[in-house]
Design goal:
The protein has five helices and seven strands. By secondary structure, it is α/β, with parallel strands linked by helices. A seven-stranded mixed β-sheet has the order 4-3-2-1-5-6-7, sandwiched between helices.
Amino acid sequence: MKKHNTCCFIDYCSQDYLIERSHDNQDYVKLETKLKEICASLIEDFSVNHFICGMKFGFEQIFADIVLKVKNKFSGITLEGVIPYENYTINWTEDQRDKYYSIMQNIDTEVMLQHNFSQDCMIKRDLYMINESKYIILYTNNTNEINAINKYIKSMGKVVFVLDVKTLNTIPNIRICR
C-alpha cells in the first residue's frame, strides 16, 4: 500500500473519556457524525484509500466501524487492523470483545506485532501505524501529552490532525472537514 494514500487514527485519551456506544448518547452521536465527516474528507479531498486502526476500544473502533460502512460507498477503500500482542483483548468485557471481533472479521488486513505483552507494545503499535501512514489523526484530551509524538510525526513530513475530545475540533486550526 502506498503510504501517501494511508491514514491511521490513534486514541490518546484516558479511559475517563470513553464514550458509551449508543445512538441515544448525544456525545457518541456527535463523535460519530464528526468522524463520518473526517472520513469522507480524507477519501474525497486527500485521496486516502487505506486506513489503519490499532483496534483500541472506543474512538479507534468507532472510526473503524465508519470506514467499514463507507467501503460500500467508495470503491477501493481498505482497512488494516493492528494488534499489539496476541492476547490484547483478554481483560476486556464480553461486549468489548464481541465488538472487536465483529470489526476484525470484516477488515482487509490483520497485522500482529508481537506474541506477548511488553511495556512498550502500545508504543510499537503507534509507531508502526505512524510509519505506515501519511495522515495521522490523534484523538486526545491532553495536547501536552502528545507533543513529542506530534513533533516526531511532523519531522517525518507527515500530516497530523489533533482532534480534541471535548470540542471535536482539530488543534491547531488544521481543517480537514468541509
